[in-house]
Design brief:
Elements (H helix, E strand, L loop, with lengths): L1 H13 L3 H10 L1 H12 L9 H16 L8 H20 L13 H6 L2 H16 L1 H13 L5 H7 L4 H16 L1 H10 L4 H8 L3 H6 L1 H12 L14 H4 L5
Length: 244
Amino acid sequence: MQELLIQQTLQQAKSGNELVREEFIKNHKPFILKVSSNLCRRYLTWGRDDELSIALVAFNEAIDKYEPGEGASFYGLAKTIMTRRLIDHFRKESKYQLLSLSPSESDSNDFKNYDSEVSMEMYQETEQNYDFAETVKSYVFALAEYGITLEDLVKVSPKHRDSKATLYKVAQELSDRDDLLQYLTKNKCLPLKELELLTGIKRKVLERGRKYLIATVLILSDPDFMSLKSFTQMDPITSRKGLA
């Protein structure tokens, strides 16, 4: 399930959703930092070391190049591309002695055997750092109580920024009201009349965004799901604006 969420996010990022791409990159800055620092054999600092800027660009490049149908791990691809770009930088700068690379080895051979190790390492890191797998599992069960699946969310997620901002704001309003939240939890449906009066958003808009609203409310109202907040696909600045 964790892999499914990642692949869905990557697909949206590749399709031009810049908000999803930016949030995905932001959430993976610890991964980028670790890969870069390990390769440089010293701790790097954001805003000070050029190597991190190079690795960040390479990670973004990996998003565009990743093809899930080919069976490779995204994290393996990302680490490979970051390593290649940093090695190119090292060669130009002549500052570093490169790990165990031999000048006679081609780049393709250098990294061909790298992928499986990287894949396992990154999955372990993700579980340890974010407890992501268990969180997603619990979230899937919570969604199921409302007849919603992760696949549903991909289909119903608002395509337009303004629509998404509007629904996100409604979800915030609902999450802040204990009475409305209790109604949702008890009846497994939205308090549409109350939400319409509270937000001024037409009932048909709320009905059309029902699955997205419920999925977002579950994340906003349950501290256990806060690590999934990036999957609401909202820009924090946008979410604080007034209702459309």
